[in-house]
Structures are given as C-alpha cells and as structure tokens.
Amino acid sequence: MENQKMKKRKQFTLQKLDPVNDRVTTTPSPEHLDAIMRNLGSEARIHVDNEEIVLHADNLQTIQNLGRGAYGHVDLVRDRQSGKSFAVKRMTLASFEEGQRRTLMEVYVAAQSKDCPYTVNFYGAMSLEGELWMIMERMDMSLDKLRENIFGADENYKIPENIIGNITYQIIKGLSYLRDEVSVLHRDVKPSNILINKCGRVKVCDFGISGNIVKESLAFSNVGSKPYLAPEKISPRDGQVGFSSRADVWSLGITVLEFTTGKFPYRGWQNAFEALNDVVTKPSPTLPAGEYSDEFNDFINSTLKKDVNERPRYADLLKKPFIEKCQSVDISSFVQEFANE
Fold this sequence. Notes:
It comes from Dimorphilus gyrociliatus. It holds the Pfam family Pkinase. Its EC number is 2.7.12.2. The protein contains twelve helices and 13 strands. Strand 8 and strand 9 form a beta hairpin. It is globular and about 55 Å long. The chain has a five-stranded antiparallel sheet, covered by helices on one side. A three-stranded antiparallel sheet has the order 2-1-13. By secondary structure, it is α+β, with helices and mostly antiparallel strands.
C-alpha cells in the first residue's frame, strides 16, 4: 500500500518560476502538500478580524448558492454561533486525478496567499462526507455580475476611466503577488474570477488550475478559459513551451476591455474552432476609437500584443500612466450604486 501511495505522489510536480525567462519549470513533488489535507475534520479554528472563532459544520446555515463549477459549488453561509457570514467552497474529493489536483491546488494557493489584500481571504478548511470545505471571506459580486448590472440598467453607460483604472490596478496587484510571492501563475483570468465588495476591494479568486502543482502531462497544456486564452497558448510557435505570466496579461487585457465596453471584444462564435482561430489570426481587439484617453488606449494595446515577448510584465503595467494615476481612487460608491441592480 505504501508503495502505491509513493507512486501516486510522483505523478504530481511542483512548478517554480524561472525568474530569468518568466516560465514555469518542474521540480520534484513536495511532501508538504499532504499536510494540507491531514487532520481536517468537521470543525475549523479560524481568525477573523483579530478574533478566534471555532466553526462547526452543524452550525453553518446555508443562505444562498453563489455559484457552481465542475468540481463543486460556493455557498453563502452564516455561523449560528458567531453570527458571521462566510463564503464556503464545497469541493468533491473526486476519485479521478484531475479533480484531486484542482482541489489541492485551490487550497494550496489560497493558503499561501492569505496575507495578500488582493486575493480572496482564506480562513481555513473542513473535510467531511467526501467533500473539502474551503472557508473564505464573503465578497459581494464578481466583475462579470457588476458589468451585467451596469449595462443591464443602461447599455450606453460609460464607466469612468478612473474606476476602470483602479479595478485594473487591484487585479494586477493580486496577480503580481501570486507570481512573486507564491510562485504561481493564475492561468484562468476572467471576469468571473475577479470578486468585488462594497468597500471597493477587488480580489482574485479560483486557483484550481494555477501553474504551480500540476500533473506532468499537463505541464505544458493550454489550460484556461478559451475566449480569454492568449494566442501563444492556442498556437505555440516552434520551440515555445511552458507558461509565462504574460499569457495572464493577455487575459487581463480581454477582461478589462469587456468590462469597459460591456461586450466581449470578439464576434459571436458558432464553435470553439472559430473562437480560437479569431484569437490567433485576427487583429487584436481595441477600445472604441476616439472614446478613451491615450493612456487607456496605450494600456489595452500593450496587454494585447500578439507577440508575447512584446507584452509587458506586471511591474511594467504598474508603471503605466493609466494605472499610476488611478491607484488611490475610491471605487466604493460606484460599486454600491450598482451592487443591488
């Protein structure tokens, strides 16, 4: 039995970033990942707002479902004892390896980035009845829901650039932290994986396919949500392998462009082939001509360079005038205006 466990562990690898080439490289599987799942039960001792709380599964009342995915769902819950609310991500401990990998990756990255103000706060976890429960901070909505609220009320509404700039700044800070401090690439940047609260905090979430611990056969696969996938991940050039944070920069550009205009920046596709073909062969999408500042146009155009080597890294994006001038903008009133549409 022990030999079988060891063989299974060897199927997983830890991806580290090569700081020179900004690519993921492979090293042996870390044993400490096993500790993530060890000793979990139906209660969790967590710290929230400098207060220690012991959560018991039986005391968590489900208020509403917040979303579903291939490997689980997220519920808004209320702890009957403390009165506090949390988002609980319930993930099935799937018997097939990809489900296990995603589950482990989600917990690993969330735990490693818990001190980052730009990623969703991870408080702790429980394991019961074949499920892993991740206890996260409650956020009010995703970026795509905010966009729907805005343009659903007025399809001609123009979001102020400083609002867009601050939201973008916070997203970049979250992605940059994951890369620099946790040594992972997100690889699935899209509006539904960006969460916002009414205080104006913007946070990155959903780390299930992040580029850190992956099965060997997936180390160079084109994962991610297809419409937001960078051209080089769809059609790699000769000799081009591995992941780069600049693939996430492309996805960021598409995400910001969609949020700005209220529409996905490519034509309606009939099938996956059309979608991928357009990303690779068509000119990069741009902001509507004459409607936005030169600084904003420069930012979008730089993130959507077809040549990955011409695309900026996070440190470069943070120095862009469009981003620098929006770092301190308070977006809370704006979010509150559209939060309950």
